[in-house]
Amino acid sequence: MKLRSNAALLILMLLSFLFEISAQERLMVPTYFNCKRDLVTSWTGVVSNYIRHTNMLYLEVSTDANTIEHILLKFDSQEELLMQLYMTDLHFKKSDWRKIESEKGVLRNEIGVTVWLCDDKNTKALINWLPR
Amino acid sequence: MKFIPATSLITFVCSLLVFPMTSNSQNQNAFEHANENAAFLRCGTKTPTENEAALKERHFNNLRGKPNKPGGSSYVPRAVGSITVSVYMHVITSSNGLEGNLSSPDIEEQISVLNTAFSNTAFTFTLASTDYSANNLWYTAGHNTAAEAQMKAALRNGDGDALNIYTNNMGGGLLGWATFPSDYAANPVNDGIVVLFSSFPGGSASPYNEGDTATHEVGHWLGLYHTFQGGCGGSGDFVNDTPAERSPAYGCPIGRDSCTKGKKAAGVDPIYNFMDYTDDSCMFEFSVGQALRSDEQSLIYRGL
C-alpha cells in the first residue's frame, strides 16, 4: 500500500516538474529587508549568468516578468557578502554555497533568486537564493 | 544605489575574466533593465529564444479575431456582471486542525471582496462548495511541489470554467499563485489559485489582509499578467491602458513613474491596479483593457 502511495507521489513529482511553467505569484516584502515599503522593488527569476570572485559577485537574472536584470555586489570580506545573502529566507551560511554552486564560482542549473532592492541610495540589495 | 550603464557593466564584468579583481573597499550595487539589445550584453551566454509570453500571445491572437470570436468583427464584449463563476473553496489546515482554519463568514467576505473588485468586468463569483482538509503536507505546499500536485489531484472540482481556490500557509514569502487560462487544456488538474489563508479579509497577514491576494490571483486565472510584465519595453502586460512599469511596486508609492522610454511609458505606474504588488489598501482597480482581456481569455480558453 505504502509502495503504491510512494509511486503515486513520484508520478506527481514528475508531472509537477514537466508542467513547471506559467503560474504567476504575488510576493510580500520580507521582514528582514529594512527599507521603506514605498521604495522597495524586487526581481524574481532564474540566474542566467553568474560570476563570483574574491571581492565581487555578479548576477544576471532572467525574471519571471520577462526582463533581464543585472546586479553587481562588491565587498571587502566574505562575511560582508554573507550579510547580503539569504537562502530561502534564512541567513546564508558558508555551507550554503555548495547548495547553489557545483564548484567554486560555478552556479548549478535552475537556481532561482529574488533580489530585493531599495531606492534610497543607502540600503544594500539583498539576494534570496531559491533553488528550484 | 547606483545605476551603471549596461555596456559599462558588461565591459567591466568581462574584464574580470581577464584581470582578476584586487581588493576594493566600496560596496556597490548596480542594476540595469532589460532592453532589446540584451542579447549583445550577455558576455558569452546564449541568447534567449522568443519568450513564452510572446508565443502564447501569438496563439491567443490566432484564436481570436475570427467572426463571433473575441477581437472579431461581430464580437461584442459581454456585459458587466453577465458571467457567473462557480467557486470551489478548499481550505487546507494543519493536520491537527488548529492552523489555517477559515470560517464560513471569512469565506463569504472573500467572495464579496472578489465581487466588488471585479464589478467593472463581466464576472461575478458565487460559492459552489467549501471543503476542509487537515493535512500538514498540503498545508505548507509550495508552488510546483509534489504536495501541490497531490492536493489538487485530490480536491479539484469542475471544468475549465470552475474557479478552485486553495488556501494554505505556503511560506517562502509567497502570498499566492495562479495558473493561466491558456494552461488549462495542457494540465487541467493543476488549474486554480492557491492563496495564503491569512490574506483573507481580516486575516493576520497585514498589510495583505483585505482579500486582494485572491483578487490578484483570480486576475491571473482570467488571463491577466502583472502590470510590470516585460518592464518598460515591448508589449508589457498586453493591455493597452496600463502604463508600463519597470518592476513591481510595494507599499503605495504615489506618483511612482519608473518608465521614461518605451511605447507604453506614458503615465505614472499603475500602483492602484490589482495586478501590481502594492499593499491591499492601495490597490482598487482593473482597467477597461484588463476587463476586456479577461473576457476574451476566459471565453477562448475556459469556455466561460
Which tags fit this structure?
heterodimer; A: 132 residues; alpha+beta; OB fold (Dihydrolipoamide Acetyltransferase, E2P); two-stranded antiparallel ribbon; 3 helices; 10 strands; globular; B: 304 residues; alpha/beta; Collagenase (Catalytic Domain); five-stranded mixed beta sheet; 7 helices; 12% strand; disordered N terminus
Say what the CATH topology of the domain at 83-221 in chain B is: Collagenase (Catalytic Domain)
Largest interface, Cβ cutoff 8 Å: A-B, 66 and 81 residues
> What characterizes the major β-sheet of chain B?
5 strands, mixed
CATH superfamily of the domain at 83-221 in chain B: Collagenase (Catalytic Domain)
Tell me the major beta sheet of chain A. 7 strands, mixed
* Tally of contiguous helical segments of chain B: 7
Low-confidence stretches of chain A: 9-21
Q: How many runs of DSSP E, i.e. beta strands of chain B?
A: 5
- Helix and strand sequence of chain A: HEEEEHEEHEEEE
Termini Cα gap of chain A: 30 Å
Q: Roughly what is the average pLDDT of chain A, rounded to an integer?
A: 87
Q: Which shape of chain A, going by the Cα principal axes?
A: globular
Write the element-wise H/E pattern of chain B from the N-terminal end onward: HHEHEHHEEEHH
Structural class by SSE content of chain B: alpha/beta
Q: What's the CATH first level of chain A?
A: Mainly Beta
Biggest sheet, spatial arrangement of strands of chain B = 2-1-3-5-4
Write down the Rg of chain B. Answer: 21 Å
Helix amount of chain A: 10-25%
Q: What is the annotated CATH architecture of chain A?
A: Beta Barrel
Give the beta-strand count of chain A.
10
